[in-house]
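Reposting from the mailing list since nobody answered there.

I have sequence plus structure tokens for a pair of proteins and want to know whether others read the tokens the same way I do. The first protein:
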Amino acid sequence: MAEIPLKEYIFVFLKGLFMGACDIIPGVSGGTIALITGIYERLITAIGNIRPELVISLVRLDFRSFKSELERIDVFFLIALVAGIGLAVVSLAHVILIFLDKYTAFTFAFFFGLIMASAVQILLEIEKCSRNRIAFVFLFLGFVAGYVVAGLNPAVLGHSLPVIFVTGLIAICAMILPGISGAYITLLMNQYEFLLSALKSLSFPEIISYVVGGLIGLLLFSRVLKYLLKHYHAVMLAFLTGLMVGSARMLVVKVEAAGGFSSGALAAFAAGLVLVLIMEVLKRRYKKKTECTA
């Protein structure tokens, strides 16, 4: 198994810290950070190479096959990256909880700005890549679905381990899609603040349930999602964008319940828009740089 130099481990770990800091914020895609920092393709390749054979070979104590599967998934790279992501997520959980408690309206307004800017960003990508009118039909369908889902009462789901497991299963699918935030999925399912509290207190049953759900989601859906994005790229992105915009209804309700769109909340909303804009500029610069050096 080929090892990577310690210096590369450190840089991958630092990129993981940056990804983790963004992954914990609803509306910011860790995939975008991976693209900006130049590891997106390597990450997607590593995730795509994860197969059930990895677990099967370990259960069978077939260490030769297990070693071979680890080599396929670029294991040292993933370990360094996941360590960075994990440290950032655990470190920032209590900070976000403070903001949600002390500055509720501002925080949800900030999330709302992030979601709206991310949706516009993906819409521009769809318009640039496809003139397919069917995509805009799915955009409308996604909006309706999101609006309806946001109007439901997710509190009835509770916070049992099976519910957290399913949340991880769904959220991980969002995390490997371009521009979609896995943290936003946890917010829609009413698990966001609960999981932040679990991270803050290091409550391992809840953390493990979420992580196991995510790992199984990777094994089950990563290839399906890659296929859909390859063959139905515009339609998939359109539906997901509509879903994001429609479900943002929930954020508006939370802001209104916490005091409404005051000048401070509007400033927080604008800050969310600006953050995504900055990330988009950095992403475009990275793409331009790679195209020039290709």
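The second protein, same order (residues first, tokens after):
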Amino acid sequence: MSAADTEPAEARLAGEIVVLVVMGVTGTGKSTVAGLLAGTLGWDLEEGDDLHPEANVAKMHEGTPLTDADRWPWLDRVAAWISVHTASGTPGIITCSSLKRAYRDRLRGPGVVFVHLDGSRDVIAARLNARLNHFMPAALLDSQLATLERLQPDERGVVVPLGGRPREEARRALDLLGLTPAAHRA
């Protein structure tokens, strides 16, 4: 039996992480939790929404759900950011809804781990209604929930239940991933 066989799964996962993809439907707090994680760990941070083509932003602003054809160019931009970081070994965190497994497959690779922020429709709707100045209207929540394919056991990632304060959710993600600020600063 090797040392890796006796090591907790979280510790093995922590040693393999280069990029965290903070995922979930609109309103789960991806940007807030990702920012807290990046600040705690000292890792690069990218807001995946900033990589959307203008046409996607316009559609969402109008309340029109994106199609797969709309999402693929955006996912390619997210994947390119991830690739730069994994190729160089530079730790980073990016937000990306990653609603379908096929989308996560586009982003997946060595060193990539997903952090799924997941909660009830009521909790997410309350967060959406409290949010200001975001192009994604609350009306699209139901279409995102209908599209969502939750992480499967064979996917590298953790599920963080929503319901606490964002700092608590970020701390829970760190605990589930086996990451500690001192050991994983860039």
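Reply #1 (J.P.):
I read it the same way you do. The radius of gyration is 16 Å.
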